[in-house]
Amino acid sequence: MAAFATGVLVALLLVTSCANGTPPEGEQRRPSTGTASTSLTLDDEPWWPVGLNAYQLGTDWRVNTGCGAQVDLDDYFARLPPNTLTRFNAYSSMAVDEDTGELDFGPLDAVFDAAERHGQLLNAVLANSEGSCEGGEFKGHGWFAGQWRTRVLPGEPMSYGSWVDTAVRRWRDSAAAAAWTPVGEPEPSICAAQGCDWQARVCPADAAAVVRAFVDEVGERIRALDPDALIWEGRAGGGQCGSAGDDYAYVGASPGVDVLEYHDYEVGRELPGDPVSGLGRRLAQARALDKPLVIAELGVHAGTCLPATERRELVSRSVAQLRAAGAAGVLFWAFVPDPRADQCTYDIGPEDPLMTLVGR
Fold this sequence. Notes:
Layout: H1 2-19, E1 33-36, E2 39-42, E3 45-47, E4 50-53, H2 73-78, E5 85-89, H3 106-117, E6 121-125, H4 141-144, H5 160-171, E7 177-181, H6 207-225, E8 230-231, H7 247-252, E9 260-264, H8 279-289, E10 293-299, E11 302-303, H9 308-325, E12 330-333, E13 344-345
Parallel strand pairs: 4-5, 4-12, 5-6, 6-7, 7-8, 9-10, 10-12
Antiparallel strand pairs: 1-2, 2-3, 11-13
Organism: Mycolicibacterium parafortuitum (Mycobacterium parafortuitum)
Protein name: Beta-mannosidase
C-alpha cells in the first residue's frame, strides 16, 4: 500500500510540474526567445547575442559526408558562456548515411544533445540556396516558386518541404532549439545558358514576390509546428536578387519572418553603406517594420593578411558601433576546429582571440 501511495504521489508531482511549466527533474527547460520591437529577448529580458556561426557541427565522418571538418561537440560548447547562440547547418544531406543511403539522424541529434548538456542555444539553418554541402545544385527561381514542396534534389533524402516538417518535429522540444532559418541566403534567380555562377544569373521581375510567398508559407509551416521558436529570414541583406532596395522590406514584412538579417563582410566600412541596399538603409527598414535585425554573419579575414589580435580589436570596435546603430546582435563567421593560420581566411579557431568576445 505504501508503494502504491508513493507511486501516486510521484505521478501527481509530475502532473503538477508539467502544469506549472516546470520540466521533470533531469530535463532542461527551454529558454524563451522572443522579440520586443527591434530587439531580441531571452526569458522576457533584453538580449543582445554575440554568437558564432559554426556550420560544421553536424559533420560526422563515421556517418555522413558532412560539411567541413568534424568538431568535438562537447569541447566546442564547453568553451562558450551559457546561452550563447550558435548558427549551424542542419541540412537533410547531413542526415544520410553515406554508405547505405539510409536516414541517420545521429550526427544532428548529437549537436542538439551536446548543446543541451552545456546550456547553449541553436539557430538551425535547414538548407542553403547555393546547394553547397547538400548536392551542389543551385536553388533558384523555380525551386522557390514551388518545387521545394515536392522535388528531391541530388544528395538529399527527401523534398525540402518534407525536411522542414521532419526537422522541426524532431528537434522542436530540445532545450537548445532557439530559432530556425528556412534557407541560408535565398536568391530566386535563373541560371543562364553559360552557367550558374552569380555573375551569369538573371533576376526575374517577380523575384521578391516569389521569395515573399516562400517565406510566408514556410514560416507558417514552422510556426504551426513550433510556435515558440523564432524564425530568421536567412537573407544576406544586400542587393541580391529578390532583396535589393525596397524588396528587402517587402519580403521582411512577411508574418513568416521574426528576425531580419544582414551579412557583413565589410567590417569597419559597413555604415552607412550603399544608400539603396547598405546596412544603414536596412536598419532604417527594420525600424519601420518594427523587427530586429541581426548581423547573422560578420566575417573578417585574418591569418597571413591580419594578425588575429588585430582582428579582435577591429571586430570589438565594430560590434560596439553596430549595437549603437540599432543592430540586435552579431554572429561571427566562422568557427572551425582546424584554423588555417598559414592562409588568409575567415577561420575562427578554438584559441582565437575573437572567442573572448563571444557571449550573451
